[in-house]
Amino acid sequence: EKLAVTHSEARRLDDRPGSALLRARTLELYILSLLHHGAWVTIGARKLLLAARKGLRSLYRDGGGATRALCLSAGYHLYVLLSLSSIWTHPLVTLQCLGELVGVSAQLRSRDVAWIVPLSGALRCLPQLFLSACSALEHLGEPLSSYPFRLLRLCGLLSLVGAKAIATPLYLRATLSTRPELHQPAMLPRKLVTAADAALSVGWLASHFALHKAYRRWHHGLPSVVAPRLLAAAGGAAH
Fold first, then answer.
1. Buried (b) or exposed (e) across 196-229, using 16+ Cβ within 10 A?
2. Rounded to an integer, what distance in angstroms lies between the CA atom of residue 54 and that of residue 57?
3. In terms of C-beta density within 10 A (0-12 exposed, 13-18 middle, 19 or more buried), how is residue 100 classed?
4. Which end of the chain lies in a sparser environment, N or C, as judged by fewer CB atoms within 10 Å?
5. What is the mean pLDDT of the chain?
6. Helix (H, G, I), strand (E, B), or coil: what is residue 120?
7. Three-class SS of residue 23?
8. pLDDT exceeding 70 applies to what percent of the chain?
């Protein structure tokens, strides 16, 4: 969601000096976002495949490479904050990015929690992988009604519900009750950030469906409590 902030800005500045640089930087950030989220999903998938071969107990072991992955993730979020100046005008997006930095630092300071890093990171990044792909296609001029865009958007919404509203709470409930290392003080910021991120994601999903419903009513000439000018401005999200 954080990288979609620049899309409308880039389109609005198309005729101004430096607009080509802005669009190039936006595309660069989309590519970095896809690489970042795709890497985390790959790490989580490898963890699940390893558990399928060695048994479920391996989910609580084999956390090799977790420190390197967390450091690279922290570098990605720092780069987004420093290179994308327009992100500071969106408080929730900025807080989400800063929260990830706080969560990563908490995991790096905690002991014996490397085993939870692959799956927790994959669950956080899976919805963002599909939504970043949607934003990249829109930035490249893909019609919002095209089949690839609609398919990616559907996968993003389904993964958002499945990963953040269902899988993450169940996974944390199962691990928090059996793993005492997750209750160390250093892990508290990570748990708070995870809970806040899940709440923001559910809130964004609810607002997305509400806006989509209001847009459809307005598009078909039915009364809507949302102002038509607001719907027109948010037409990309409603589609």
1. ebbebbeeebeebeebeebbeebeeeeebebeee
2. 8
3. buried
4. C
5. 75
6. helix
7. helix
8. 71
- Alpha-carbon distance of 161 to 155, in angstroms, equals 10
Two tokens at 79?
A: 């780069």
Per the CB < 8 A criterion, the answer to whether 182 and 113 are in contact is yes
- DSSP 8-class letter at 224: -
Spatial CA neighbour of 102 closest among 70, 139, 148:
70
- Residue 164 near residue 190 (C-beta atoms within 8 A): no
Neighbours of 142 (CB within 10 A): 14
Q: Which residue stretches of the chain are H helix?
A: 5-12, 19-54, 66-83, 91-109, 117-139, 147-159, 168-176, 188-219, 228-233, 235-238
Instruction: Flag whether the pTM goes above 0.70.
Output: yes
- Reply yes or no on whether the pLDDT at 200 is more than 70: yes
- In angstroms, the CA 69 to CA 181 distance is 20
